[in-house]
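Dear support,

I submitted the protein below through the web form. The confirmation email said the job was done, but the results page showed an empty box. After a refresh the structure appeared. I'm attaching both so you can tell me whether what I see now is the final result or a partial one.
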Amino acid sequence: MNKNRNQMKITKADIIENIHDEESKISHENIHIVLNSFFEEIKKALGDDRVVELRGFGTFEIRTRKGRERARNPKTGEIVPVETHGATTFRPGKELKQIAWKLRG
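What the results page shows now:
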């Protein structure tokens, strides 16, 4: 592919427009409300330390990243301590894995 990554990205506005094109009975505003509510529910569940499983798409969860005494700031090279903290992870589902597998094959 000759396109750079910025030309290949899709934004929330693009998703709203694509859904509106396919199902024109739903207004942009209503699609926006539903999509934002969907994202808020995911964030709320993760904030409550729950796993979010979207069958066929993937699973979001918070995993604990162990702290370290001697991490390095990549910008300055300075050695800094890093506390134990949570990190959001995503594991793609079977269907998404199959799409990705075919894409670069």
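Response: this is the final, complete result; the empty box was a page-load delay. Residues 14 and 20 are 10 Å apart (CA to CA).
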